[in-house]
Amino acid sequence: MPLLITFYGDDFTGSTDALDFLSKAGIKTVLFIEPPSKEQLSRYKDVEAIGVAGKTRAMKPDDMEEELNTAFSSLKNLQARHVHYKVCSTFDSSPDIGSIGKAIEVGAKIFEAGFIPLLVAAPVLGRYCAFGNLFARMGIGSNGSIYRLDRHPSMSKHPTTPADESDLRLHLSRQTDKKSGLIDILQIEEEFSKTKAAVDRLLSEGNEIILFDAMYQQQMARIGEVIDSYSSADKTVFSVGSSGIEMALGAFWKEKGMISTTPDWTDAGAVGPVLVVSGSCSPVTSGQIAYALANGFKEVAIDTEALAAGGNSSEIANEHARQAALLLSAGENVLVHTSRGNDDIRVRNTERIFTEKGMPKTETALLYGTLLGEISRKTAELYPLKRIIIAGGDTSSYAARAMGIEAVEMIAPLSPGAPLCKAYAPGSSIDGMEVNFKGGQVGKEDYFLSAAG
Prior knowledge:
Layout: E1 5-9, H1 12-24, E2 29-32, H2 38-42, E3 49-53, H3 61-76, E4 82-86, H4 100-110, E5 116-119, E6 127-130, E7 133-137, E8 146-148, H5 168-173, E9 180-183, H6 185-188, H7 192-204, E10 209-212, H8 220-228, E11 237-241, H9 244-256, E12 275-278, H10 283-294, E13 298-301, H11 304-308, H12 313-329, E14 334-337, H13 345-356, H14 361-382, E15 387-391, H15 393-402, E16 407-415, E17 418-424, E18 434-438, H16 447-452
Parallel strand pairs: 1-3, 1-4, 2-3, 4-11, 5-10, 5-11, 9-10, 12-14, 12-15, 13-14, 15-18
Antiparallel strand pairs: 2-16, 6-7, 7-8, 16-17, 17-18
Helix pairs in contact: 3-4, 8-9, 12-14, 14-15
């Protein structure tokens, strides 16, 4: 059976977000760490969609181009109806780091795209686009206030890609010369033929990227219908955006009868003490850490200053894993973290060391993520863990690789965009374990307690 869709996520938590919504739509999906070989694919039966959990959000454009040329070429060979470059729903990017414009240029060339649909709105995640401007709720799966992106308390102060422009067309114009057109919120409400005609007019005017507004979940199926109308048996549509792409296509395919079943998910339930590892500095995660520690979790605070100064990462991982395993053996839920938030003294002191050494911020994601993955794997060797929660979008991609994960598959919902998954990690202590990857903006204050069951 031909694949309905394949996707490349620019980080791990963003990729599990897409996995979540495809799986909930009834599309059997497997998320891989690297583009899978035919032999790997043969081990996963009845798959209708696959994803690749990438790490381009923390890369420079030249490195992105090399990575995406390989990944997109591999996905093209799978001949799916759609290929999606999945980005964060807050459009985290800049001309120098995680450039979405660069991804668009590479994808447009490889897939010989007539145009690139762009959909960032994801109403169920609290992400809304009106007249080209992106608005985001404070915290996914929460009841936080909604802010225009450039005034968002968290995203406007992002340590790597601070948002200073809410108009996505202007934001993109800094990253690519490709011209962007807009199907606005009023045109979305038109009947299908009129919306599609509006797209065709924009294309005739030389627009190569078409941004779709959306405010309400019921608008997603219409957007999916328009995007899908440009695909065919011999023509793959290459799109860019948040998991709104999966929501839109999934909703349309359900209406069309291409998806016949909706899974009956069971609650995750409790499995005994859990391990949480966090490399996030997000204010949302900071609040979740504080709540967890105030409600019984025990902490293991990583000495990031020693790590930054050139400490032996293997020895640091062994020591923190030993501490975590002792606490888990005593029946305690454990939270290992690189900081409690941006106000943590370790953040300032560690940044000073990195600056003195001339280390760019992109390297910290690799350093912290790899360490957190090693701590997780070594803790699982010392204690029979059943569930691990990994927090932090930029660090999760590297953590998953250090854990030895080959692929994950959703087994239960936890929070919108952050499902509980089964890990396939041949030869690693993580193999068969329940894992949950949470982006910095995801979840209510009690997230870690809820994830523990």
